[in-house]
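Deliverable D2.4 — example input (structure tokens):
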């Protein structure tokens, strides 16, 4: 593909293979040095401009403003509404989400797949994970029974 645009030309030609396409005229004139074209405003920007123009047109008489209570007036204070979490561990910080997540975490901690564990150790781990997913109990078991054998 070849683009044909001479130094003094104001049109562009495109040559592809044996076919020549064009002429293509520029979409606008040249941009002067140190000047930039402004970007087209989005729909929300145009709407904001219309709202600003409308706000400038609206005026309230001074008498209406004098009847409005001032901001220095005391308002009754309200206590914020609080609702405790129904779940004691809503962000799963104390327990694993599932047995699979616990096994992935243990495998990552040991740096090896759990299939390489001895069969009796794997069976003990499965019994523990089926009984509880509490992180402190699982990590205590891993530190006492697995790390001494499999961690460097």
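Example output (designed residues):
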């Amino acid at each position: 593909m070849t683009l044909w645009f001479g130094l003094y030309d104001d049109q562009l030609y495109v040559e592809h293979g044996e076919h020549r396409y064009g002429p293509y005229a520029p979409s606008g004139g040249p941009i002067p040095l140190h000047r930039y074209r402004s970007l087209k405003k989005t729909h929300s920007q145009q709407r904001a401009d219309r709202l600003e123009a409308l706000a400038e047109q609206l005026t309230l008489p001074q008498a209406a403003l004098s009847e409005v209570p001032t901001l220095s007036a005391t308002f009754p204070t309200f206590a914020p509404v609080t609702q405790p979490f129904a779940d004691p561990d809503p962000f799963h910080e104390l327990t694993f989400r599932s047995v699979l997540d616990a096994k992935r975490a243990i495998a990552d901690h040991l740096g090896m797949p759990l299939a390489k564990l001895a069969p009796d150790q794997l069976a003990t781990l499965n019994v523990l994970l089926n009984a509880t997913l509490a992180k402190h109990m699982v990590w205590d078991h891993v530190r006492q029974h697995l790390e001494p054998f499999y961690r460097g």
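The chain has a mean pLDDT of 83.
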